[in-house]
Write a structure and sequence with these properties.
alpha/beta; 24% strand; seven-stranded mixed β-sheet; homodimer
């Protein structure tokens, strides 16, 4: 027997209409590519999202056709999120930090029909348009009178001209909530990028999960700054959760240096920000150099890669900002866990609390987790047993776009490629990527632990721990270090820094100083490249 | 094209398993009918919910068969919530405050197969069992050795004996998320009670919505006391949202007097409570009489009927407890709106904030609202235009159980029977029930406004405003007042109290003092009974 409740599909169009109706006056502030600040409201955004929907109809785009973006975090990108998905098309957010060949490959693989891009990325589009065989329409996200001439891009038009004369009312279509809504490619370490194809259902459920008090905790009393890009797993879903809750949105555009981000936070009363650890390095440096404080920001979500405990401590003790350490993946929409204390932990001392907050946190309802040994046997949640992390739930992929890579699931679970422990309270701690694990004499060494200790040293800007072959122990850890500008530290000083902080056999065998550590398109350290760079490296003790 | 996300139905069994796995140690504390406090954890609750599922299988109950409860808020009731729905049956929570004939009528209408009841309600069951033609199994929620003899109830058994030997593991079935999960009857003012039949989907979505920061705001750092009964719209969904978030649960059982509730709040570190206004009168009286404070409780959800502003003020100013004023209906699972301030309102003075908090608040994502005039034309959200309130969304009914009352929807919207304004910020204010509206000389008078003013008078314990016929104005308001014990106030003093607080023509024509005001089974004032009682009442000025 079915229940007798209204059979309403969960649709992305409902999010923007809800925001327009219930939070019509709430602000959306964007730093534009042009440099100025643009301000408007959810009511305005909804109106223009409807114009986008009309404009797509006028181009004759069919249901589920892909519309790509190459854009910073800003109001026009926000409108595209809702106009494209809401009208039944699929928004394909492309990471502009990929090399042009990859961008063209992805656009062709996705069969994008339209590509909308910020002026910043005109050089990329000039370089690739001829290779993009499916794109029929090129839209520059700007005013008509700023449209550059002689770009060579066929039929290039401006966004404002494209949507400007469309009606501001639109009858959003209703359809199966499992319909495709957004497409995001993730660059695996091997092979071509693979696409995660989100649905309306998964996106709305994820928006609920992400807004919960023990997740990102979003309300109409927040002013939220997503530094994490809208081309990177939909800025962790914040645009959707913000519309769901009426939070004020502050978009940083292309200005991601410490000074710009700090000034935006202060000027717009930001209460919550979100980004990967590397972006906060610049912010913390700026704030420390100028003796500044945060007057409104009380928490920041950090994920994408493990946040060094030193950063969590610094935010908390020096700036009274709580780091919400999170973990997720493109394949997970992306949120899996966020670290928030539990009731009994409120009684703990600050040091013990900081130790909990260094973990990646607890799963959100909607995400089931398990850790398994190499034979697939489930391991206990004892905080010690370390195994391959598997997840399942309604906002986790079942397969990749076009079936690339075959069926990724194991007994219905998605294997994350992360290695983790889970403690009895349900707090996840990522100890490694399965392919980054260092196995020395039959024992695992957590490269993340080794890196976090190095990051706590005042002279270290960034540190990566990789394995190098060893005749006796099979593998031993090598620490690759980028120093802070002007800071000095020797190999021996750094190795001595590990004494008492980690078991002796886990201390790296050597330190290699480098001028820079290669970062991927999403700001993660590219250990694969480092391993290549240090292939054949001779450890001193070997 | 469909998205490529895992196709997992939303099921109530997932809530309890999530809690057991991620919040296994979080506490559930219950004051039992026996008088003592019972303590255990979500892990224990899940184990026993699985035993309930096995016990129902053993009885041969089919999918969607109804299992009724007549029970206070407590751990056994909590287990039944998950064991019954999780295994594919429908939990039918019966309000024990209904008269026995109504209870029997409802049990027969629902075709309940099993009825589980607290010892308190043995007299009711004795009175009705012979009339309940479909119930085949009677279960007393207690220990085997406490089972009374010679009750006459055929095959009566104890809950502990019933589930005690069942396995503690259970393979929860997966099925269509729109399947029926819970049944709750609402007693309309006319005709027989009608059943709202919730689904797994509606229940899980409502649990997400209710836990949001701008709703009840539930996290694993909360200790929550639902005073609102589990037989009254599933205690506003708190059992489900608590399992979703790992909040500690504190169940008050039958002890709802001010002293018992206060002591439970203090002993169990309650941070959040929830109930109808009438239950808080007793609590506030107890606290005031003994000069007490709340050491942990920082907020309380009040709904079910409009919360007098004087109570909101008293909680805030005297006890630093924020009232989260809410509105909903049995037909809405029940949450529609909760009152939380928005970002710009944080700048307002306390008095202006209290004025906002006196409204019923903003809708949760999942609930669309509109107000319409008598012709069905939508009215503006200007805070002044008052009209019939309509709602729609995935946790709102489409029809009543067995189609009773026909199709209740108007163009897909559920007419709530409430009359309301909505202001430009989206804050709903219920001004009346459509059948309680007083229309004087063509102008509406809000009976709720009139009552709230009376409630602010120190001598008034409860006040009801009803209309009486008037030869010139058609209708005029009569104020029916129950004084506080030992307090004195005259008719003229009370009427003078309205001067300057309301327009002259809205002031009641007369005051009638009564010893008690009739309350319905859910604690709401029964104005229909009052209107009968005062039929033919002669207003002095008439």
């Amino acid at each position: 027997m079915l229940g007798l409740m209204q059979d309403q599909p969960l649709l992305i169009s409902q999010l923007i209409e809800f925001a327009a109706r219930n939070h019509g006056d709430a602000e959306i502030v964007s730093r534009r590519v042009e440099g100025d600040l643009h301000r408007y409201t959810y009511r305005d955004a909804a109106r223009r999202a409807r114009q986008v929907a009309h404009a797509l109809d006028r181009l004759g785009l069919g249901f589920s056709d892909r519309v790509a973006t190459l854009a910073w975090n800003g109001y026009r990108h926000f409108e595209l999120y809702f106009g494209i998905s809401g009208s039944g098309r699929v928004i394909h957010t492309i990471n502009p930090r990929l090399i042009p060949e990859q961008i063209a490959w992805i656009a062709n693989h996705a069969e994008d029909q339209v590509l909308c891009f910020d002026a910043t990325f005109l050089p990329i589009v000039k370089a690739i348009w001829a290779k993009c065989t499916t794109v029929r329409h090129w839209v520059l996200l700007g005013d008509a009178d700023k449209l550059p001439h002689d770009t060579g891009i066929p039929g290039l038009r401006s966004y404002e001209e494209w949507i400007g004369n469309e009606p501001v009312e639109y009858a959003w279509p209703a359809f199966d909530e499992r319909s495709a809504a957004a497409l995001c490619y993730t660059s695996g370490t091997t092979g071509n990028p693979k696409g995660a194809l989100y649905s309306h259902r998964s996106t709305v459920l994820h928006a609920y999960g992400a807004a919960l008090p023990d997740s990102v905790n979003l309300s109409a009393r927040d002013s939220v700054l997503p530094v994490v890009p809208m081309f990177h797993v939909n800025a962790w879903g914040i645009p959707y959760s913000a519309a769901m809750t009426g939070a004020k949105l502050v978009f940083p555009g292309a200005a991601l240096d410490g000074k710009s981000v700090y000034e935006l936070i202060e000027a717009e009363g930001v209460t919550l920000s979100a980004g990967v650890p590397t972006v906060w390095l610049g912010l913390l440096n700026h704030v420390a150099q100028h003796g500044l404080k945060f007057s409104t920001m009380n928490r920041t979500v950090i994920g994408g890669s493990a946040c060094p405990p030193a950063m969590i401590r610094s935010f908390k003790l020096q700036y009274e900002v709580t780091v919400l350490h999170g973990w997720g993946m493109t394949e997970m929409s992306p949120l899996g866990t966020v670290c928030n204390l539990k009731l009994p932990q409120l009684e703990l001392g600050l040091e013990e609390q900081l130790a909990v907050m260094a973990k990646q946190g607890r799963s959100i309802f909607g995400v089931d987790m398990r850790i398994v040994d190499p034979d697939g046997k489930e391991l206990p949640w004892d905080g010690v047993s370390s195994g391959d992390l598997h997840v399942r739930g309604p906002w986790i992929i079942s397969s990749y776009f076009k079936g690339e890579g075959g069926n990724p699931l194991i007994d219905g679970w998605f294997p994350t490629g992360d290695v983790a422990t889970i403690d009895p309270q349900g707090f996840l701690q990522i100890t490694d990527r399965s392919k980054d694990v260092i196995k020395s004499g039959g024992e695992w060494i957590s490269s993340i632990d080794v890196e976090n200790i190095a990051m706590a040293h005042p002279a270290v800007a960034m540190a990566a721990c990789i394995s190098v072959p060893h005749p006796k122990w099979d593998e031993r850890p090598l620490l690759v270090v980028m120093k802070k500008p002007g800071a000095e530290v020797t190999r021996d000083e750094l190795l001595a820094f590990y004494e008492g902080r980690i078991a002796k056999w886990q201390i790296p065998d050597d330190v290699a100083f480098v001028d820079s550590i290669p970062l991927g398109a999403t700001g993660k350290m590219q250990k694969m490249k480092l391993r290549e760079q240090f292939r054949g490296y001779q450890l001193p003790a070997a």
